[in-house]
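Data card: per-record layout.
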Amino acid sequence: MRSLIALLLWVSIAAAQKPPVPKAADGKPDLSGIWQGGGAAGLTFAIGAENARAARPDATPAQGGRGGGARPEPAPYQDWVQPKLKEIRDRRSIDDPSGRCLLVGVPRITSMPLPIKIVQTKDEVIFLYETFHAFRVIPTDGRGHPDDMDPSYMGDSVGHWEGDTLVVDVSRFNDRSWFDRAGDFHSSALHLVERFTLMDPDVIWYEVTIEDPNVFTRTWKIAMPIYRRVEPNMQLLDFHCSEFVEEFMYGNLRKHQLVKHWEGETMSIDITRKIPPGDSFYQWYDGSNSNK
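The structure for this 292-residue chain is written out next.
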């Protein structure tokens, strides 16, 4: 009995000492600042790092909190996906969108090991990413997705508040971004629901519900903490990208070389790429249809 009373007393003292989360002028939690997630998830976000997912800081051990918990399940891929994954992973250093200096998409951009600046106003939350200088302007004024939005790497985001949690609905994706460097992919039917919860002044709990009926058997979730960068004068820096840098640095370690030969500092890579459906309009720029 005494031990139970001591435990309850300790819990109440710890709760009383926990600093309050900052609030914006409208009473919502203020997410403004520079944050960073990243880590292993940027390498194998959907399968490998899903099994090494960080536990929610305030969860009990039975819920996967500090001190242990159940091992998170792998991504629920449909049966047809496995052969395609093997094909992708054999060429991932060449076909990874990040290796070609293209936007890495959502939610992967949150798991990249570079800072994210959040600017919050009454009617929108703006995410500025050091990674590829990407950005998202997320309205929180009740509007929905526009009907005429073209698919893109980052999709279209609209948000609203559920209590103290920012909920962001993301759709209108193309099918060219990956979840991670391992080649885990999605289709253009991808639909995400992101939840940003300010746990304390320096920790955001980030949770994503993933839905893609063309690739997965059901909806599933991933989650991770995002930490505030508290260094004095912290700011986003310039992001410089060199295409195929991984192949330049480590391609010589391949069992089957993609680089056929070198001419000084120039490498020649044997690449066969099929034009995806919907991209054939690029053929108009090669001059073959200039007289039509």
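Known properties of this structure: The chain has two domains: 18-228, 245-286. Helices lie at 2-17, 81-89, 92-95, 108-111, 245-250.

See the next section for split statistics.
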